[in-house]
Write a structure and sequence with these properties.
The chain has 589 residues and is α/β, with parallel strands linked by helices. The protein has 2 domains: 2-258, Rossmann fold (3-Layer(aba) Sandwich); 262-587, Alpha/Beta hydrolase fold, catalytic domain (Rossmann fold, 3-Layer(aba) Sandwich). It has 17 helices and 24 strands. The strands form 4 sheets. The protein has a 10-stranded mixed β-sheet with strand order 1-2-4-3-5-6-7-10-9-8, sandwiched between helices.
Length: 589
Amino acid sequence: METVKGATSGNLNPENDVVTTLGQDRDMYSYIPASGCPHAKQTQVFMVLRDSDTRESAEEVMERLNLKQLAEERHFILLFPNPLKDGWNYKDLSGRDDDKSFLVRCFAALPNSKGGVAGFNGMIFYLGMSKSSSAMIMTLLCKSPLDTAAVMIGEFPEDYSIPDGPKSPQSAWVYEKNLAAEKYFNEVNKPLRSVDDYAEYSDSVVLWATAFENQDNKAIKLFTSEAGLSDATLADAWERLFSETRKWRNDVYGTYQKRVNFDDMGFTGHVKTDELHVSGDDELGIKRTWYEYVPVRYRGKRKKLPLVFYFHGINCTPLYGAEQSEWASIAEREGFMAVFPAPGEEERWNGQNDSRLAADAEFVMKLIEYEDKNVHPIDKSRIYISGFSMGSMFTNALAAAWPDVFAGAVAINGPHIGYLQTFDETLPGIVKFRPDSRVKGLAPNGEKESPVHVLSDEKKSKYDYKMPFVQFAGYLDILGFNPGRKFPMSSKEDGMWIDTINFWRKFNGICDTELMFSKETLSGLAADINKDEDRFFYQSWKDEKGDELYHFVTVRRMPHAVDTREPEIGWNIIKHYRRNKDGSLEYKA
């Protein structure tokens, strides 16, 4: 039994928050698989709604539907939220407790639960065991679609009418005849087409439902059946729907993405190894982890390939970053290697290259040599870097301090903090995200400038390096702004984004101008080139030769998240550049 406080906060950690509201103190039962769960950002949460609030009812459902074995095999968290005595508030009546918010709080309560594990907010799945619980799930998905990545429901009570809501796409499995639900899902998921997916499964798997998918996004799925709810139909639903679904919170109602099967794609993992011998790792007790992807058509061959690194955000993991960015899919199509490393400690990058922390920059340099000698030959004139959040900050740092190594960068939702601040200045923010961090009591070292700042200035003074750089920023994301400031920018006092933009403009030889701001643009910035396309507002500046090396892209409706089109957009800009041995840039159309 787990307590779900009415004041449970949805502020969990970056990229994994949910929106909660106050309610009654409630409870739920949970089952954490003894086989273990993956990283929280890779863990699915399966909420089973039944009409009883007893432990026995939860155990009976687990036994009847073989849920315990399924959870152990697939490593997901099972939650059994308990209804109040008057049942589920599927009509969302104002005089009763808000069950929608209660269900969201069940997820939010996980990190502090007895089980001590957490899941990902884009993989919260629901099963309705009864008419009333199916109606409750329907009400939740209609009014709060971000909180229902995929659902499995049956019939509704006779007195239930589907409520109004935003009518956003919703992956679902209807396990018994429910014309109202089918009509709703057909409408919100259109255009749909029937899918013959029998060939995707072995002869031993029985398929219990007819499959449909959205023509524009195959990850949006609808399954209809009259086979009812059983251990067999649930196993089929897990295989064909739940295991393949993720909904990113990167837009108003999220975006569906099919899960990546890393084994099938041919990822190679190096987990907790010391074979690179990075300085200081032994003293800090660090083992290094990374994953690499080589395009299928180049495996076993010796053709030199470009290399792209992707650095994930704080409190994340490399395979999460691989799914989030889809860099491997781009690599397969475009013909380059992709590497997804993990930071040395506490899931955070050493963006200042501070000597008291893990030597993550050295790790990247040694990875280049390792990949070239042991995995596949690398075209060292075409090594590129990319990252999100703290990974974006690390990307900024590497591009500034090692411009002789990298030919271009794509950074998403994170400013140039490694150059602009010392680690001591960023320490309070680090501790906020990890209160038990080993650096919590770290004594200040008195540095006025970070090692990245010093090295960047030193290299730039010896050679006039240029760096093709594409920076994305979410319009709703306040990271990089001073308190109370946000887009559109209007003053140099807005925060670190202004200093970041000015750094890269100066680095790339773009003349200073007093006309930095404009009330006519989405970002608030004045630029030489402005292009508005879909949710992306593109801006760039020309240097004295007319080259556009620095690009700033403001993304509408974007919180602190990634649109999977961003890496692709960035790649199509930076892929034309190569770094010559003398430090100069070469452009090929």
